Amino acid sequence: MESTETINSRFEEIRSYNDSEVSSAVKSLVKDSEFRSAVCAAIGPIKYCILKSRLKKSHSKEELQRLVSLPFVKQTIKHTSSGLTSDFSDLDLQNTTHLFISNHRDIVLDSAILSYLLIEHGSKCVEIAIGDNLLIKPWIRSAARLNRSFIVHRSLPPKELLESSRILSDYIRYRICTDATPCWIAQREGRAKDSNDRTQKSVLKMLAMSGDGTLVEKLSTLNITPLSINYEYDPCDYLKAKEFQLKRDNADYRKSKADDILNMKTGIMGYKGRIHYCAARPINDMLKQIVQSKPVNVQLEQVAQMIDKSIFSNYGLFTTNYVAYDLLTETDTYSDKYTPKEKKDFAEYIENQLKRIDIPNPDIAFLRTKLLEIYANIVINKHSV
What we know:
The protein is of the alpha/beta class. 55% of the residues lie in helices and 9% in strands.
């Protein structure tokens, strides 16, 4: 059970809403004109009215998940994908609480689909780590906190960032070890735009700021569980390629708030093809291999590599990945994995995505390479294990 006193005091600035706050937060949300306009633009006025009715009937986080969030995810999967598959066979979801660390493909859906799958397997929804850079409107912040999100502060001065990281670490540990609520966090800050998924040591260092004992002991009690996520098609691939050129041509380039909203909307509404989730065993047994006499930074690097290998080995590869590798390398290495028509269709898909990139002086060769890398790097990493 939640200790409201504990949650409300030290974690006030980052925590998700308590059940007692849901009704009030929902009332404020449905009165927000920007929320109404954004949702109506995405799903239409009639569906918004249905959503508003369901929100008003939600008086706890569980009711909100059941009436709003999970039906939304289910409909999104139905209308924007060719199906969802998953493998959680290595986990005891009913009796063990997991801290899922995954590669990051979609800003909103990665964690939302995970919660949907966990409910399907008889487990709890996850608490979700979300960067404050994405909470660009008051209604987005409120909706995120209603949907079990806790906030990761990113743009703080060094001293404040250190204290914020300690609080974040304590919060995650509280949820996992005391509240028995599973959590999800991406393996790195932001998405790996080229799908070259690598765990940042800084994420692990933050997790080890709380708890007692050695680094290994601190991480073991969190039950870290690597999760592999793969989409057959990435709806944001052309936006990611565009960002690569903009950053290449201007070292000071930063995405705008409008860019973040476009990425979120495109990721949710765009076609994804097949989707696959696969959870590895928790890394506790692997952590026992760490030589604890080595410097902490060396130990953190070893843990990061363990997580990466688990994620790589559990990728669900699709035809798009194999074709992209062969197009990128100009080989036929994986020609047995696809038909000539599938190769032709994917090559045409890439050319069509190139046409969607609206920047001055597009470097077509560079952009094509980046688009192909988004799909090919998954093959490279899986076969590196």
